[in-house]
Structure formats: C-alpha cells, structure tokens
Write a structure and sequence with these properties.
heterodimer; A: alpha/beta; Rossmann fold; 12 helices; B: alpha/beta; 2 domains
Chain lengths: ~325, ~350
C-alpha cells in the first residue's frame, strides 16, 4: 500500500502495466522527456525506453490515428491528449475510426486502446483547459468513457481500460489530480467499467455524480445530514455504458433523483440520466427529477469560473429543493 | 536509387513503359518476369471487368453508390504487387486492383458496395484495413501499423493510399510528419487522378507536384507515371525495400487519371472537357500492358477478349449470389458495437426483434 494522489496513481498504474505487458506503449505531447505537463508519465521513458514512452509531434489527430494502427497491429497503446479542450482535432479519428472499427469490420479488427485526457475545470487555467466533454464522447456508439474520482478507483479503472478489448476514453478530473491522497494497493486489482459505486447510502434522495463533483456532493450530503436529510450518493464512474441498475435500484428506494455535473445543461449527460429514470422508475418518483449543472455558456476564464462551477452549498440547496418538493 | 534520380521539385517523372507498351528505360526495368506481368495484367483486367459490371448493375438499380477505378488499374495493382504477404495495405476507397491483388475476394468487395458491413470482414491472413471514407484519415493508421511492426522487431511495412484531394487535408501532412520523425516503415501512395470529385488538381495546391510535399517532411518523394505498371512497381518496390531495411518512409505520387465519375452519383461532363478524357484514353494503362504482352508473344487480342468476357460473366455471377444472400441479420447490426453487448443495446435489440415478430403475425 502506498499513499498516493490521483496523478501519482495514474503514473504508478501506467508503470505497473508497462512492467507487466510489453504491448503497452505510452505517448503524446510532452509525455516522454518531461513526463507530461501534469507529470502523469514521469520516469516512464527512463525506465522503459523511448520506444515505449515517447513524445510525439504536436497533432492530436495523428496521435490518435497512430494509436489506431498500433492497436490493430498487436499493441495496447495509451495515448495522452494534453487537455480535453485540445481533443477536437482528434475527434474525427475518435468518432470515425476508433469507435467504429469493430463494427465496421464485423469483429475482424478491434482496438484495445486508451485515450487519456485531463477533464473538467477548477484549476484556474487558460481558455480551453476546463472542458467537460462527456456528452460528445458518451453519445458515440463503440466508445467506453470512464471518469474516476479517487486514486483507488483510478488504478482499478485504468487497468481495466488498458486490458479492455474495446477503446476506452479515460477522463481524469484535473482539479483533483493533487487534491488528496489515498491508500492505493501496489498489486493487481481492477474495477469493472460500467459499474457505478454507491459512495454514501441514504433514503431521502438519489444523487448521481462523477469526477471532481463527487467530493463537492459528499460535502453537500454532509450538510444535509445535519438537517436530517440522508442522501444516497452514487459515483457513476463510467459515463458509457451507464450502470442503469444501480441508479434505478436507488431511485426506486428513495423516490427522488438529482444528477450533478460540471458539463453544460442542455443536451448534457444529466438529460440522459433523467430520461433513464423517467423510463424505468417513473411511478416511483415523488418529485421532478432534477439537474444541477453548469450553465449553457462558454466556461468563463479563471476570474469568473467560480460562478460556473457548483460548490457544496449550491449542490445542497438544489438537493434540498427536491427533497422538500 | 530511383528516389535520387527523379527530383519531385523539378517535376521529373519516372517512366519505363510508354503509351504503346514499349520499354523506354530498359535500365530502370524492375525485376519482374513477363509471366508475372501477365499475372498482374489479369488482375487489371478483372478490375476493369468488375468495374464495368458494377456500373451496369448500378444503373439497373441493383448496386448502390459505387466508386469506379477505370484508368487507375496500373497504379492500384502494381503498388499492391510490390508488397509482401505480411505487409499491411491501408486503403482509401478507390483501389480495387490493389484489394484484389492483396487477396480480398470480389465477393467481399461487392458485398461492401452492396451495403453490408461483412464486406469489410477480410480473412485472417489478409493484412488489409477496411475502406476509409473520411479523406486522408487512414494514413495515420498506416503510420501506427508501421510503428508497431518496428516496435515488435518485425520487418513488415505498411502502405497507405490517398488521392490528390486528400493531400490537402491535415491528416496527410501529419502522417508524413509523424512517419518522418519516427522513421516509420511506411509508404504513402497518392493516386493523383486529377480530380477530387469535381475539383481540379490545380485547386488543391500551388505546389508543382504532390510528390514534393515529401520534402518539407524530410522524407523522399518521387513522381511516377501512374499509368505505367512497371514504373509504379519499380518505385513502390524500392520504397518497400527501403522501409524494410530501416530507411524510413517514402511518398509516391502516381500520376494518373480517373476515366469515369467520382462515384455513380456525379456526372463528370459537368466539370471537364471531353477532349481531356480522349487524351487520357490514349494513355490507358490496361491497353499499354496488353500491347507489351502481345509483343512478347504471351498474349493475343483473342485471348484478351475472351478473358474480359469471362471476368465480366464471373463478376455478374458473384453479384447474383450477393443479391440472394447479402442482406444483414438484425442481430449483427448490434453485436459488433462492443466485444460484449451492453445492457442498453440488448434491450434495444430485443424490443426491436419483438416488434418485428409482432409485424410478422
């Protein structure tokens, strides 16, 4: 066991899997010599050589396109996009090829590859460094999309992602890269993709969230507990495919549903989750299912970003409304 | 080395066999027996026959949208013929001669154009990627395949195709750049057929040749007569040998002409003059190999007519079979999205199957 933060866990996990499986290669911009702008790949080039952990020219489309070819030819590439806001040049590759190769070839080819990228905001960064892209990734058939919220989960999910025979987009909440440490086992363990986790049990309301917002939501739940409202908090962990059973089971118990996310509201991931709850648990609902989300605006630059993000007070206020409906 | 003798910046073009099938550069003639030339010629003939038949079937409303190859058979067939069995072929979408050469059956290819994904399911031993419609995007896959070969210490190379229009898209430059930086064992073949749907080659770039785009990436580029089977074979063979020997990537511009339409959905008379087409018909790549083979005493006009008729008949037979069996199973539309079908897809499939069953009653 080691006490690790999220970014050190990513580093440890890549190291672990590269040591175990020489088909795993890691690359992207500043990934090699520097070890990544967030230090996710620090030391890996030194340890495994420049043919297994390397810097690429600055072209996200080619980074992902190259990963496609490598995956077809027997490797398990882990490509890094430096920030999710720079993913768009690679979106053509992701949507047109990564997601489709298995279906296009009726299973003849498949792509065991992972695309990692920092996700979400709250780090007072420049424009394009705070994006939440769950909707445009989760909407695409053939992709799996994962967002860990703790170091422990990150290792188990990243190992699952690298070992998965389908392509996995691994979104890493950059706000909590260094927010806290947790005991992370040094040995082998996986957490299944597509399984949510009930992080706090409760009877009053089901609250689904993921990534950095899990921690704000737990703080909100603590406030509410002091008022006698026991919220059930679910960390979705996988955006696609959705763990429908865990959500529906919980809503049938609580009769109330709130989804909390950083992404914009309209057509956002919350819309899908509310549709799911309506389809599967409509008659159990005692209040309108509710979304607590980012506004439908461009994420503000650092001086104004705190207005965009939800803190525990706003989350608690939103949940209170649903409980008191 | 051909790449040292033909400078793309000077517009020099490798030509070995002229328009009448005469060898004009005997010293550059590749190591290719006349018997092998005949084999390649038959693939060119089959390509043309399959094209002719596909167009007829499309006009009868039996085949869907189809991208014809007529006029480009030499560039396609010769480039793929220079590859070994374990080398990777990465198509764009207009390389019928290359696919046949690589060992994909006409049945599979017609099934693709018939509109069924099983037409991209190639046998295990055929190292070919499926057709890639987003222009230029496939070249980065070729780089990745080549990088993986290199990483594994294998000697297999990858060859990716693109058209003249595709050289304008970012992926093209990115692929050349990555290949150069990583010294990837990859060959890029541009089939410059002078048109991207309706847009002339001159509208794509002010560069005098497309081959010279290699220069900025720091890799060799060579312009070849794409209607000259021997020239294409010689250039690609050299590039394959270089790649296999660890000498990195090569860009080859095969200068050719699309005698037909972009696809069955456009009318080329709207964007080009008839006399241009007539000029290029005289440069027909099939005709010149036929003349060469006749001159060598290996072939005759009679054999040629009989072989073409036989291939057209064969193509029709293949298509008839597909018409009977080429519609997909509903389950297949869902089954290959992921390795294991997630619950939400199982639900959608089962609801739809129940609906279909109800309709049958």
């Amino acid at each position: 066991m080691a006490l690790l933060n999220l970014i050190s866990t990513i580093n440890h996990t890549l190291d672990y899997e590269m040591g175990r499986d020489d088909r795993v290669v890691v690359f992207g911009e500043d990934v090699g010599v520097e070890g990544g702008v967030f230090r996710a790949t620090v030391g890996l080039q030194e340890k495994y050589g420049a043919d297994r952990c390397f810097d690429t020219p600055l072209a996200e489309g080619a980074i992902v396109g190259m990963a496609v070819g490598m995956a077809i030819n027997g490797l398990r590439p882990v490509a890094e996009i430096q920030f999710s806001g720079f993913m768009y040049p690679a979106y053509n590759q992701i949507v047109s090829h990564v997601a489709r190769m298995r279906n296009r070839t009726r299973g003849r080819l498949h792509l065991p590859l992972v695309i990692r990228m920092p996700h979400g905001g709250g780090i007072r960064a420049l424009e394009h460094h705070s994006e939440s892209l769950e909707t445009i990734l989760g909407h695409i058939p053939g992709l799996k999309v994962v967002v860990p919220s703790t170091p422990y989960d990150a290792k188990g999910l990243l190992l699952s992602a690298i070992r998965d025979d389908d392509p996995v987009i691994f979104l890493e909440p950059s706000k909590i890269y260094r927010a806290f440490r947790q005991e992370v086992p040094e040995g082998d363990y996986t957490i299944p993709i597509g399984k949510a986790k009930v992080v706090q049990e409760g009877e009053a309301v089901t609250v689904v969230t993921w990534g950095a917002y899990v921690h704000e939501t737990l703080k909100a739940a603590e406030q509410l507990a002091n008022e006698g409202i026991d919220a059930e908090v679910i960390d979705l962990r996988t955006i696609s495919p959705i763990d429908r059973d865990t959500i529906i089971k919980s809503v049938k118990k609580t009769g109330r549903f709130v989804v909390v996310h950083e992404a914009m509201k309209t057509y956002g991931p919350g819309a899908e989750l509310i549709a799911l709850v309506n389809e599967k648990a409509f008659l159990y609902l005692e209040a309108p299912p509710t979304r607590l989300t980012g506004f439908d605006i461009t994420i503000p630059l650092p001086r104004g970003e705190h207005h965009y993000f939800l803190d525990s007070d706003r989350i608690a206020a939103g949940i209170r409304k649903v409980v008191n409906f | 080395m051909l790449i040292e003798r033909f400078d793309p910046l000077k517009g020099e073009m490798l030509r070995i066999m002229d328009e009448e099938g005469q060898i004009i550069a005997p010293d550059l003639k590749p190591d290719l027996s006349d018997e092998r030339v005949l084999e390649l010629y038959k693939v060119m003939l089959l390509t043309r026959a399959a094209d002719t038949k596909a167009l007829q079937l499309q006009r009868q409303g039996r085949m869907l949208t189809y991208a014809p190859n007529t006029g480009q058979e030499a560039a396609q067939t010769a480039s793929a013929a220079a590859l070994g069995e374990n080398d990777w072929l990465v198509p764009a979408f207009r390389e019928l001669g290359a696919w046949l050469m690589k060992g994909v059956s006409l049945e599979t290819i017609y099934l693709y154009w018939y509109g069924n994904e099983w037409g991209s399911h190639f046998p295990e031993n055929v190292r070919m990627l499926p057709i890639s419609i987003p222009i230029g995007s496939q070249l980065n896959h070729a780089v990745g395949l080549a990088m993986a070969s290199k990483y594994k210490g294998e000697r297999d190379v990858a060859l990716g195709y693109v058209g003249d229009g595709g050289t304008s898209i970012g992926d093209f430059s990115e692929a050349l750049n990555f290949a150069g930086v990583f010294d990837a064992p990859v060959i890029f073949v541009i089939q410059n057929n002078q048109y991207a749907i309706s847009v002339k080659r001159q509208i794509q770039t002010r560069a005098a040749t497309l081959a010279q785009k290699a220069v900025a990436a720091g890799i060799p580029g060579i312009l070849v007569d794409g209607n000259d089977l021997l020239a294409v074979y010689a250039a690609v063979s050299e590039a394959v040998e270089r790649a296999r020997a660890g000498q990195g990537p090569t860009l080859i511009e095969a200068y050719t002409y699309r005698l037909g339409a972009h696809t069955t959905s456009d009318d080329p008379t709207k964007y080009r003059e008839d006399n241009e087409v007539v000029e290029w018909r005289a440069k027909d790549p099939v005709k010149r190999v036929k003349q060469y083979l006749i001159a060598q005493g290996l072939w005759s006009e009679e054999q040629d007519a009989a072989q073409s008729a036989e291939y057209e008949e064969y193509a029709l037979e293949v298509f008839r079979k597909i018409e009977e069996t080429g519609d997909p199973q509903v389950e297949d539309l869902f089954k290959y999205t992921y390795k294991e079908m997630p619950e939400h897809l199982e639900e959608q499939l089962s609801e739809y199957l129940q609906y279909l069953e109800g309709k049958v009653k």
